[in-house]
Amino acid sequence: MEKTIAIIRGDGIGPEIMAQALAVLDVVANKFGHTFRYEEAPMGGNAIDAFGVPLPESSLKTCLASDSALLSAIGGPKWDTIDPAIRPEKGLLALRAGMGLYANLRPSKLIPQLKEASPLRADIVERGIDFMVVRELIGGAYFGEHKTYQRNGEEAASDVMAYSQHEIERIVRVGFDTAMKRSKRLCSVDKANVLDSSKLWRKIVNRIAEEYPEVEVRHMYVDNCSMQIVRDPSQFDVIVTENLFGDILSDEASQITGSIGMIPSSALGEGTRGLYEPIHGSAPDIAGQDLANPIGMILAAAMMLRYSLGMPAEADAIETAVNKTLESGLRTGDIMEPGKTKVGCAAMGQAIAAAV
Ligand code: IPM
Ligand code: MG
């Protein structure tokens, strides 16, 4: 097969980890007889430097013309003080919206070889961690009206968290469909004791639940959910929630696995084209030092092969190679343990590519 992949190399450690993911993809292409065409789509701080905007129109076009897009991570202190209207994050939000990617799937799964790295108590970890956060990605407070203004002689600010019925319905369906492919337990997270947008959310979840009689549904307030994630994560299979809650809960959900550098995520809309990225940030503090863990990025590439490019065997090959490499004892600094071999970003990537 021939596939075009939009490549967003990003900022900070982004270019280093992307280089490793592309090296792995090249090996996969070779082994399985595919051609991957990489089209550069600058976005984030580097795009601000080069083009004056975080998402040049040409980059969005490139992504929309591709079979799928692969992103590393964006942002950094260099752009923290610039005009908020063109911050790197704006590029990411505009890309998600421009590609219509309303469904963000973020797995939280304990990798057995790394269970010592979890910050949770051993008896909690023993019960297992394996759930998926399905986060709404292009609505809610992120995309409502943002305003800073004067009120009673002082500065005030507001951000509107608005959801229309169809926006809730489509993401809730993704939640149910995801639950159907897993162990059929869905937890919908909201703040329906306070927020109208959550009351509507809950009403729609209950209505759509009737279409999925096999799925066991429960509702949980977001504050309780954040507590339950650390108290007993084994209770969760699929969590579906709105944008801001999902942003917060998915960071918590990844951290408890002890290996935020290892987790990929997907963002999808109506078609098969998606945006795949590791869930960690651009880690400017270790950029350019060959210290980053490229595994989250490499697994994001695998996820892309599986969900957007229809290449499950190829995705399996990458995931198996990652496991083998960890089995062999190689570790980057973030997941280093006594008795293992510490390697840099490039060596880890090369070992995985070789294992494919
Ligand atoms: C994420 C990030 C982004 C978000 C930021 C960089 C805008 O935290 O992907 O979770 O809040 O969605
Ligand atoms: Mg986040």
Strand order of the largest sheet: 2-1-3-12-11-4-5-10-8-9
Helix content: 40-55%
Number of domains: 2
Largest sheet: 10 strands, mixed
| CATH architecture descriptor name of the largest domain | 3-Layer(aba) Sandwich
- How many strands? 14
Shape: globular
Count, helices: 12
Segments where pLDDT lies below 50 for 5+ residues?
none
Q: Estimate the mean pLDDT confidence.
A: 96
Give the ordered list of helices and strands.
EHEHHEHEHEEEHEHEHEHEEHHEEH
Helix/strand-derived class?
Answer: alpha/beta
Under the CATH scheme, which class of the largest domain?
Answer: Alpha Beta
**Which fold name fills CATH's third level, the topology of the largest domain?**
Isopropylmalate Dehydrogenase
Ligand inventory: 3-isopropylmalic acid, magnesium ion
Radius of gyration: 20 Å
**Termini separation:** 18 Å
Summary, kept brief:
This protein has 356 residues and is of the alpha/beta class. The protein is built from 12 helices and 14 strands.
Secondary structure elements and pairings:
Blueprint: E1 2-8, H1 14-32, E2 35-40, H2 45-51, H3 57-64, E3 68-71, H4 88-98, E4 103-109, H5 122-126, E5 130-136, E6 146-151, E7 154-159, H6 165-181, E8 185-190, H7 196-209, E9 216-221, H8 222-231, E10 238-241, H9 243-255, E11 264-268, E12 274-278, H10 295-307, H11 312-327, E13 330-331, E14 341-342, H12 345-355
Parallel strand pairs: 1-2, 1-3, 3-12, 5-10, 8-9, 8-10, 13-14
Antiparallel strand pairs: 4-5, 4-11, 6-7, 11-12
The structure holds 3-isopropylmalic acid (IPM) and magnesium ion (MG).
Magnesium ion (MG) binds near residues 247 and 251.
